[in-house]
Amino acid sequence: MFDIEEELKKLPAQPGVYLMHDKRDEIIYVGKAISLKNRVRQYFQSSRNKTAKIEQMVSRIARFEYIVTDSELEALVLECNLIKEHRPRYNTMLKDDKAYPYIKVTVTEEFPRIMLAREMKKDKNKYFGPYTSVGAVKDTLDLIHKLYKIRTCSRVLPRDVGKDRPCLNYHIKQCDGPCQGTVSREAYGENVALALEFLNGRYEKVLSLLEKQMMQASEDMDFEKAIEYRELLSSVKKVAQKQKITSSSMQDRDIIAMARDQEDAVVQVFFVREGKLIGREHFHMAIAAQEEKGQVLSSFVKQFYAGTPFLPKELWVQTELEDSEVISRWLSSRKGQKVHIIVPKKGEKEQLVDLAQRNAALVLTQDKEKIIREEQRTVGAMNQVAGWLGIGPVSRVEAYDISNISGCESVGSMVVYEDGKPKRNDYRKFKIRTIIGANDYGSMREVLLRRFRHGLEEKSRLKESGEGEELGSFTRFPDLLMMDGGKGQVNIALEVLKELGLSIPVCGMVKDDNHRTRGLYYENQEIPIDHRSEGFRLITRIQDEAHRFAIEYHRSLRGKSQVKSILDDIPGIGATRRKALMRYFKSLEAIRDAQVEELLEAPGMNRAAAESVYGFFRREAKPVQE
């Protein structure tokens, strides 16, 4: 039994990270501290300064653990990693999980390529970005290949020169064909250098050149070529116009500001690279009413920059960040050079931060209705179901279904929904091992026993090994079990839980005669539900998903195995004799009724095999089935 008062006395006065667990052993909060002793004790002391969110979180704490670090900076890094891993309910969380594309120039190759890259690696190649749109990257790459005839193939050059025919890009004049030896390394390198200038935002040369080529083609009466140059010129101007000049200092920086209401915040980020605004993006965050702007922005910066490989030299932020100095040191250590966090107070800098804030406010207003609708169909629907059942808050739901055809290849499915959304990484499928035939109750009992025994054993193993409790799909137990069926399936689940000493609410998803969701069966009665409600739609989605997942697994098993015949169980009868018997007698009934001498007439049969078939059917008491 964890005694909070006693454990508080043991806390060290050292920097580190603390993790708060609830009664289900779920990690609900992760924080860092300069002094664990002082910081953790504050949560359990009476104070008027606690926010409602913190009060609620403290009321749910069943135990805590901590990890000592050598410095506050180490604690911050560990805090970021643990928040990203566990996504605790009471931490201010970044809702979006976006990855930004880059443009990669393979300067380490003798004939470099220019391509889209999903991440920036330390491989000595050149990277441009990150860009906020894959579409924008593809448009830019398409334009570069048209302008500079850079190859897109993955051939190793010059080793593979002339080994294969040129690709389509060569024939449509979007590649100079280095794979055929038609362009020298020096000439190709000049085109790559021009492409690098273009990517660096220096468009003057290419604009001037295209304009001259367009005019020359027009004078030569080659209007088709002139139109081609005009279109290229228009494309370059379009790209150039997007690169709005924001500063003459040519620095890389991100401009960050937020707008908020009581429960949600939108953080807007302007990405400035070499003094040019290359794009912007917004991010939604779930917050508490009493949280200050500095706390929200601090949480955003830690979560966002823990997951992006590119770090600018400067962050311009709307207000002073909580732990600003430590965050700056952390970002600097990641980048390998100083990263400055600046709060602009006047002039152009302040205007740009204000512009980011106005954009954030606009997004918050526009998206609020959409966010509300999404919450109604997910978290709101889950709360509605919990209300019908009269149980506490429900976050995690597990639903189960059994699938078989005449008892053949019985399988079970487990689907998981968290906060009203499917968590597909936690889905599990079970091939029934101990039940023969179409016994859905027995199959469900096996599935539930295996699932919860596995979870209990894994929890016990982790505790004994001192590894802590990594909450995976089996070690994390649900707030509610939903069975595909009524009273029978619910009772099976309750028996299993009682046998294992677990207390989890169980309800059945009941269908009508037309196999449509009708209602919920809970505590020996069917609960009527509003068929127009979001809760009803969520139940239907969960039931359909459990059924789909089971059927999908069952089909995969049927597809992997051959159709089984009872003849396969007869000693001495292999695939060749089985096929010969079926071709000769046409049916299993005819084989069953045949005498030994008649069986000997089938191709490939000898007396031992014939007597084996004859004896097998005389010993079998069950009907013959194909």
In short:
The protein folds into five domains: 4-90, GIY-YIG endonuclease, CATH 3.40.1440.10; 102-201, no CATH class; 253-369, Nucleotidyltransferase, domain 5 (2-Layer Sandwich), CATH 3.30.420; 383-560, Nucleotidyltransferase, domain 5, CATH 3.30.420; 566-619, Orthogonal Bundle (DNA polymerase, domain 1). 44% of the residues lie in helices and 19% in strands. The protein has 20 helices and 21 strands.
- Averaged pLDDT, please? 83
Counting H and I runs of at least 4 residues, what is the number of helices?
20
Name of the level-1 CATH class of the largest domain: Alpha Beta
Query: Strand share of the residues?
Result: 15-25%
Could you say how many structural domains there are in total? 5
Number of strands: 21
How much helical structure, as a percent, in the residues?
40-55%
Oligomer: single chain
Q: What distance lies between the first and last C-alpha atoms, to the nearest angstrom?
A: 59 Å
- Low-pLDDT runs of 5+ residues are 244-248, 560-564, 620-626
Largest sheet: 8 strands, mixed
Spatial extent as radius of gyration:
34 Å
Shape: globular
Q: Based on helices, strands and strand pairing, what is the structural class?
A: alpha+beta
Kindly report the CATH topology of the largest domain: Nucleotidyltransferase, domain 5
Based on the structure given, which CATH architecture of the largest domain is correct? 2-Layer Sandwich
Specify the CATH homologous superfamily of the largest domain: UvrC, RNAse H endonuclease domain
